[in-house]
Design goal:
It is built from eleven helices and seven strands. By secondary structure, it is mainly alpha-helical.
């Protein structure tokens, strides 16, 4: 079921429409031929429509194109002299739509300027009471640096929350190493952002309430086609294997033993024993006494034997 829009009640995000959403808006506001005409002349965003003075001027050009001729028959009257006159309702429709879009743009710019002034006038004593308006200003009109900081904080938070599910002990994606963030402003101050992953894939980021969302990038990281995530997981496994190997080598070099004695202690004990004992041959006590007795008895016997031999 199509939804028709009144020009005095345009969608809040009408100035940031593009692609399918933009053409769907034109279909429900002006009609199917008007949507096909804008697609034919490559007007695919609201900002592009505002920059074109008159999209119907294409019919005044001498162009040989069957699709354009078909649209001319639908949006124009063929006159008797074989010329075409654009239907007044078609012209009025485009003029009225562009005027409504310009008024909507001016209102948003005034609203944004007013809120910025309110934010600058807020003092420290009234921060708590004005926290909601300040938050609305931040949401509706962020600067380029604020958009970038917002996206990087979202990526950091996602890494911390998903490192366990990805089986990674430490997981942080760094800009310039793992991805490249690109944020630009269109002429109607609408931010457009893309992320180029290290694997080479370029991902367009969507928006929610003028804030850039990173869900498309998260989905890409979890696909098999992201070679950068495969490299990160492989590097993590190699670190774990190296830690396990080092732990195994440390245990094997110092085996546990309850009965072993330190080699240093053995050498110390031997040195103590060697220095305490004199370098002499020890003779048992009993043997020394026997030798002494033999020497005492042998002297008289030797003397007596001499006397007998003289006699």
């Amino acid at each position: 079921m199509s939804i028709s829009y009144h020009l005095d009640q345009l969608p809040s995000n009408v100035l940031s429409l593009s692609g399918y959403d933009f053409f769907q808006f034109i279909r429900t506001t002006l009609g199917e031929p008007e949507a096909k005409l804008l697609n034919k002349i490559s007007v695919k965003t609201t900002s592009s429509l505002l920059l074109i003075e008159d999209p119907l001027d294409i019919f005044n050009q001498d162009i040989d194109d069957e699709e354009l001729d078909t649209l001319k028959e639908q949006l124009c009257f063929k006159m008797k002299n074989d010329k075409f006159l654009i239907k007044p309702g078609v012209t009025y429709g485009f003029v009225s739509l562009k005027q409504a879009l310009k008024e909507n743009l001016n209102q948003q710019l005034k609203h944004s300027t007013k809120r910025k002034q309110q934010k600058q006038n807020v003092n420290t004593s009234s921060i708590s009471s004005l926290s909601t308006p300040i938050q609305e200003v931040t949401t509706s009109s962020l600067s380029l640096s604020e958009h970038k900081s917002h996206v990087l904080n979202l990526i950091k938070k996602w890494c911390n929350e998903n490192k366990e599910s990805l089986s990674l002990d430490s997981f942080q994606l760094e800009e310039g190493i793992d991805f490249t963030l690109n944020i630009d402003f269109e002429q109607n101050s609408v931010a457009q952002a893309t992320i180029k992953c290290k694997c080479g894939k370029v991902i367009s980021l969507c928006k929610n309430n003028q804030k850039i969302q990173v869900s498309n990038f998260y989905k890409h990281l979890q696909t098999i086609g992201c070679s950068r995530m495969q490299e990160i997981k492989k590097a993590q496994k190699q670190i774990i294997l190296q830690q396990q190997l080092q732990s195994t080598i440390s245990v094997s070099q110092f085996p546990a033993s309850q009965s072993c004695v330190s080699p240093m202690q053995i050498r110390t004990d031997e040195a103590i024993n060697t220095s305490a004992a004199p370098n002499i041959n020890l003779v048992p006590t009993s043997q020394s006494k026997n030798n002494a007795k033999r020497r005492i008895v042998s002297e008289p016997e030797r003397s007596f034997s001499t006397k007998r031999s003289r006699t």
